[in-house]
Amino acid sequence: MRSLVTDAWLLVSALLAGIGFTSGSVPLIVLGAMIFTTGGAARLWSRISLEQVIYRRTLSEHRVFVGESVLATLILENRKTLPVPWMELRETLPRGMPALRVRTSPGSEAGSQVLERATALGRQDHLEWPITLQAVRRGYYRVGPTRLRSGDIFGFFEREEETGRPVDGIVVYPLTYPLPDLGLDSARPFGEYRGGNRIYEDPSRVIGVREYQSGDAMKRIDWYATARIGRLQSRLYEPSREQSVIVALNIPTFELSWQGSDPVLLERGVAVAASIARWAADGGLALGLVANGSFADADRTIRIGAGRGPDRLSRVLEALAMITAFTTSNMAGDLEDPAYPLPAGATVVVVAAVMPEDLAATLLRLRDRGHFVAVVQTSAAIWDRSLAPIPVVSVAAAMEVLEAEPDRAPVREPLVSELMGAGA
Question: 35 lies in which domain range?
């Protein structure tokens, strides 16, 4: 319908010119020619209105903590000699990061808001709009896509298109708390943790074989060496002194999936897991993460292998920031997945609001295999099953106090600077 209206100038100009030629009326011919010329010029102007118009977006940070802000600068440039009489910009912003001191409207996609700006661009003109986005809750947020709309000076014809600028992502790290604020001893928070160097054989690093000894496990036997020598041979493993902490976040907050999710317990679990990860990284321990959720735009379980890299804590906090109530797997199976074996002698700290029977059985088996296992309970509920001798520490009461007074948990500036440097 709009196309018929905008193309009416052709019909009107042709009709007036035809009547003018038929009747010999020069004014009608001139009027028809003027309408045709004006309409043609307007149509051409609209077609080139967005040509050589460059849109850019810059973000001051891509990773921040709750309470910090991100400066988003929207930049428009007209690099052609023809001015742009009017221009409308529609930038998609995340609703979870409010834009300060500007008006927005709800976006067409869930969790989005739209910022609209109208302007005109002269020849070789350059405009910038600074927008401050406030990080009020942890998560992964997208800025974009962006649409531009313009046209001719009369407003007869319009052109609209989505810019080629890619969507920018912003990670808001979860809140972290010092372990004493959670009611845990920062020196020995899980009881079984010991100082000093613990020595384990790392089954992932084979350094040779030896004669089979009574009591060797069947999985230790090297059948290729046995067949070659003709006597039972057992593998020799390289000793490992690395102390590893695997933080395992069990996302469900109810026993049954159809019961939904408790948002308070979900955020509490993420904050507790992040706090334990920060403690482990600050203590120089090899840090890893397992969570039965998925990364943004992916359907794979969140899993980060244990390590001490300079960006390890940043990666773990970034993964925790992306967690939603949606689960992709079962924590019991994730911890015993043969494709991703836990480091030898690792300390496994499970953060959970509920304790399913299969997860309880898995934790007991891990303990029997030589892992140090501890459970941090985030809910005040009484669990039906006992995990003894695995220690269970409840942080529900302490977290309720911290949640009521969020100002009690400021993030240390050195940690912020370190993370920002690692993410650059």
Answer: 2-48
On whether both 400 and 261 belong to a single domain, the answer is yes
401 three-state secondary structure: helix
pLDDT exceeds 50 at position 215? yes
Confidence of residue 402 (pLDDT cuts 50, 70, 90): confident
CA proximity to 296, closest of 176, 175, 171: 171
> Is residue 288 within 8 Å of 304, Cβ to Cβ?
yes
Q: Which residues share a beta bridge with 237?
A: 206
Q: Give me the number of domains the chain comprises.
A: 4
Closest CA to 69 of 139, 136, 129: 136
Residues 6+ apart with CB under 8 A from 180: 186
pLDDT at 185: 72
Q: Read off the pLDDT band of 7 (50, 70, 90).
A: low
Strands 301-307 and 286-294: antiparallel
DSSP H helical ranges for 87-184: none
Query: Both 167 and 280 in a single domain?
Result: no
Is residue 192 one of the residues assigned to a domain?
yes
Question: End-to-end CA distance of the chain, in Å?
Answer: 50
Tokens, residue 358: 């299969």
Task: Give the list of residues 6+ apart from residue 393 with CB closer than 8 angstroms, or none.
Answer: 183, 184, 189, 190, 374, 375, 376, 377
- Does 183 reside within a domain? yes
12-35 burial, b if ≥16 CB within 10 A, otherwise e? Answer: ebeebbeebeeeeeeebbebbeeb
290 and 234 inside one domain: no
Regarding whether 58 and 44 lie in a shared domain, the answer is: no
Q: What is the identity of the amino acid at 297? A: D
Q: Do residues 31 and 133 both lie within one domain? A: no
* Residue 318 shares a structural domain with residue 366: yes
Strand partners, 79: none
CATH code: domain of residue 281: 3.40.50.410
Same domain, 86 and 16: no
Rounded to 5 degrees, what are φ and ψ at 321? Answer: -65, -30
Retrieve residue 324's tokens.
Answer: 């939603």
Residues pairing with 233 in the sheet: 211
Structure tokens at 211: 């004669």
The residue count of the chain comes to: 424
Residue 203 lies in a domain: no
Could you tell me the pLDDT band of residue 248, with boundaries at 50, 70 and 90?
very high
Q: Please report, rounded to a whole number, the percentage of residues in the chain having pLDDT higher than 70.
A: 72
| Under 8 Å between Cβ of 254 and 289 | no
